[in-house]
Structures are given as C-alpha cells and as structure tokens.
Amino acid sequence: MHISVIGTGYVGLVTGACFAETGNDVICMDVDKEKIERLQKGIVPIYEPQLEELVKNNLGEGRLRFTDDIKEAVDHGLIIFICVNTPQDEDGSADLQYVMNVASHIGKVIEKYRVIVIKSTVPVGTCEKVKDVITDELTKRGYEISFDIASNPEFLKEGVAVDDCMKPERVIVGVEHSRVEEILRELYAPFIRTGAPFIVMDVRSSEMTKYTANAMLATRISFMNQIASICEVTGADVMMVMRGIGSDSRIGPKFLFPGVGFGGSCFPKDIRALIKTSQSHGVTPSILEKVMEVNELQKRTFVEKIKNFYNGRIKDRTFAIWGLAFKPNTDDMREAPAINIVNELTANGAFCNLFDPKAMDTARTLFNKNPLIRFGKSQYEVLNGVDGLVLVTEWLSFREPDYERMKTLMKTPVIFDGRNQYNPLTMAKLGFQYICIGRPSPRKKV
Predict the structure, then answer these.
(1) pTM (2 decimals)?
(2) Do 273 and 311 belong to one domain?
(3) The domain spanning residue 319 has which CATH number?
(4) Mean pLDDT, rounded, for 297-326
(5) Does 265 have pLDDT greater than 90?
(6) Above 70 in pLDDT, residue 157?
(7) What is the pLDDT of residue 259?
(8) Are residues 193 and 96 in the same domain?
(9) Of 167, 201, 235, which closes a domain?
(10) Any idea what the CATH number is for the domain that residue 224 is in?
C-alpha cells in the first residue's frame, strides 16, 4: 500500500517506519525542513530503541522516504495518517491548530480519493471538524472529491514504541463506512497475525477510547501514590500491598508502582484535555481532577521528604540526581517529575549534579541557565562529595550499582529513592540511610 504520514514526532516516525518494515511504500512529511534533511540521511532526532535501525534499513530499501512537501505526501498515499502534535492550550484543552492546519492543506491539494486517518490524540468530535475543513477547502476550489475520515488512536509507550507498533495488544479504528474498515484491516493484517483484536467502532467512541485509556492508567498511578501515603503513616509496606492487590485478576499488577508521579507527553495533557472536554459539556470530572491533584502533590511531597530529612536545611548541600527522563529508555523530559524536583531543590539553595543515560542534551537545554546545576558524564561521577543521591527514573543501569564505590564517593551515604528500587533492609545492612515511598525503612536524620 501507498501510505503517507504527516508529522515526524514519536508517533509519526514510529508509525511510518513500522509500516515501511511490513513492505508498504511510505512517505513521511513534516514542515521542519532541517529535520527532514536529517531524516533523509538516516539521522533520527529522538532516542527510541530500534527506531534508528528501522529508519535506516527502510531508507536503504527504498520503502521509506521523507519530504517537506504536503502535496507530494497527499498525492502519494491512499491512506494519509495525521500524526501531528496536539499540545496543551492555555486553558488546558487540546490545541488543535496543527491538526486543522494539516486538514486545510490536504483540502487545498487533494486530487483523488483518500482515507484521512487521525492518529493524533484528539478530543471527541475532532474528526468531524477535520472533515468539515477539508470539505470547505474543496468547495473553495470548486472540486467534488470523495474522501473518508477515520480515527485510529495510537497506544505506543515511549521506550518500547517500535514493539508496540509491530506487535500491538489491539488495533482500534473508528470508521463511518465499511470500505474504510476493509482498507485499514488489510493494512494492519501483518501486525495482528497472532490474534490481537482489530476493534471497529464509531469515530467518536474511538476518539474517546484513547483518552479513557490514558485516564485509567494515570488514575491507577495516583491511586497507589495515595495508598503509599497512607502506608507511611500506618506502618504498612506499599510494595507488599501492591503484590497483594496485583494478584487479583480483576486488578492486575500493571501501573501500580508508587513513585514521584507521572509525566511525559501524554498523561498530563490528555487528562487535562479530557477534564476540559467534560466541563465544556457540563460534566464535573471530579475523579480526573483528583488524579491530577494527587500527581502534583506527589512531586512536592517527595521534595519535602528530602528537606525534612535535613530538618529543612538543604541550602548549600549537594545532591546527585539519577534519572531525568520521565521514564526509562527515552530522552523525553516533557513534564518529567525530575524537572520539578531539581527546580525545587535548587530554589532552596541546593546544588544538583545531574545524570541520565539518554536525556543529558535535553537537560542542558532546560537547565543551562541555573548556576546551581552541574551535568555529569556518568552515574558515579555525579556522586563525588554529595550529601545524598536522589533516584528519579528507574533506568536498568541504576538497578544493581556498585554500592561500595558509591559510599567511597559520597560525602554521606544517603539515598532518596523515588521509585522504591532498592530493599530498605538491604540498604541498611550496606550502611546507607534510605528514604523511599510508602515503605518503613530504618533511618536517622543527618
């Protein structure tokens, strides 16, 4: 099939590369000419496991091309995927300007039947707006060209996005006509050969499904963070509680790990957008509002743990920060909890030595004007002379560190674990003061 993908961010680039990998002829289009020039050379602007290899292989095989020409993209693809960003607007709603701009340009250049598929995360009713915009542009041109609109929400997890695309748990499409279902079912056939469901529904329900999935996952995270707070004051161990409830088949173990709160490009903005959509229709989304409230509180609470450990005196103390990306296996720091934690520590006069396996370039852009921040080359370098280690992102390389080496480097062997990565009793035996989330741990204040 001839496929066009508009937008070369995480979703667009992964989608285009994976469709090319299954033999389709794919063009990815973006207005950023510099990015397109780099992609044409096989230079991938983001870190995502397997993605660079996939792009280079399919470029070499001629199945994947890049362009900044919207007409070339629209002329090429029977199916045109819109994968542009839908950032948060000032009022919390989804900013659809990029989606609508693409729709307008499609309407200005479309010459024959096309299936326009919205893969960007968009509020309910957006597909209808896109259809109206394209129709208006065709009317201005005096053209009558048949086209179809469909919704095909993405469920890619950063860090494993290629695997999620190639081996999806499910494919959801929202369509108006059976002919579109047939086209999309054929396109996705190589991805669902092992039995993953291909779920067909109306367009509005498809749009709503994406928001609902993210809201549910975020709710589980905030719920467990609140349970962790209760465990701390009652003496229970949240990790034991998590194992207990996760073994219940009605609940399951996923997204139950307590931590410093969720971040990233999806959960925060999508929940805010769903809240705004609810309010605009006269519905009070009280649970969703609390999910966001608990998430913001969790970030502040973790910093308070650090401050309380030092009786509120952290000015001129130095902390090593392990992990800056919002999750492992990505360099994405959008709404990463580390940003709040670092900013709060330095606002109180503390120095922060930062290290992340992949997000250092992003961190330099975000923090380069803060004189209290230093950027390290390794996880051990940033430990030199520090008063404490703050673990924010659970990269694999942090799971089994050299504890003896750590103690020789650190001024005081104190670990503030925002991911409950280590065992409190083990840390005590190794001679560390250990502060985590929702777990009793032997410790003394410095």
Answers:
(1) 0.91
(2) no
(3) 3.40.50.720
(4) 96
(5) no
(6) yes
(7) 95
(8) yes
(9) 201
(10) 1.10.1040.10
Q: Which residues are catalytic?
A: 266
Q: Would residue 440 count as lying in a domain?
A: no
- Tell me: do 67 and 137 sit in the same domain: yes
Residue 441 lies in a domain: no
Q: In the chain, how many domains are there?
A: 3
Give the mean pLDDT of the chain.
96
pLDDT digits (tens, 9 = 90+) for 365-419: 999 999 999 999 999 999 999 999 999 999 999 999 999 999 999 999 999 999 9
Is 314 in the same domain as 165?
no
Q: Do 11 and 92 lie in a common domain? A: yes
Q: What is the pLDDT of residue 445?
A: 53
Given 292, 321, 345, the domain boundary residue is 292
pLDDT in tens, 53-93: 999 999 999 999 999 999 999 999 999 999 999 999 989 99
> Do 184 and 218 fall within a single domain?
no
CA distance 269 to 88: 6
pLDDT at 443: 58
Torsion of Cα atoms, 271 then 273 then 275 then 277, to 10°? -140
240 and 95 in a common domain: no
Do 8 and 150 reside in the same domain of the chain?
yes
Instruction: Please choose, from the candidates 122, 70, 117, the residue with its C-alpha nearest in 3D space to the C-alpha of residue 96.
Output: 122
Tell whether 329 is covered by a domain. Answer: yes
Q: Does 100 reside within a domain?
A: yes
Host domain of residue 429: 299-435
Spatial contact of 42 and 116, defined as CB atoms under 8 Å apart: no
Q: Which tens digit of pLDDT belongs to each residue from 1-19?
A: 999 999 999 999 999 999 9
